[in-house]
């Protein structure tokens, strides 16, 4: 794999996080591109079953992001 043109060590923490977010966003456009281990698949299925059975309420994505960002500050 060729070395990237970006010198990651020279980026600020904020810029590295932004780059990480952009990389993640580029992967989730094709969900099948990120393989899951059998254990990960089993855990996701378990959690989905909890939601489907009304045992667990989900949290809107915007709220999750807000909570994460409020902890980082």
Describe the protein in words.
The chain is an all-alpha fold. The protein has one domain (8-72). It has 3 helices and no strands. It has helices at residues 13-28, 38-52, 61-72. The longest helix is centred in the N-terminal third of the chain and has 16 residues, at 13-28. The protein is flat. The protein starts with 12 loop residues before the first helix and ends with a helix.
Highlighted features:
about 70 residues; single chain; mainly alpha; 3 helices; flat
Number of domains: 1
Structural class: mainly alpha
The helix count comes to 3
The tally of beta strands, per DSSP, is 0
User: End-to-end distance, in Å?
Assistant: 36 Å
Helix content: 55-70%
Task: Please tell me what the overall shape is.
Answer: flat
Overview in brief:
With 73 residues, the protein is mainly alpha-helical. The protein has 3 helices and no strands.
Write the layout of secondary structure elements.
Elements: H1 13-28, H2 38-52, H3 61-72
């Amino acid at each position: 794999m060729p070395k990237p043109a970006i010198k990651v060590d020279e980026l600020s923490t904020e810029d590295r996080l932004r780059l990480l977010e952009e990389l993640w966003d580029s992967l989730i456009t094709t969900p099948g591109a990120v393989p899951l281990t059998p254990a990960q698949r089993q855990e996701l299925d378990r959690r989905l079953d909890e939601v489907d059975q009304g045992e667990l309420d989900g949290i809107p994505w915007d709220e999750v992001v807000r909570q994460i960002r409020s902890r980082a500050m």
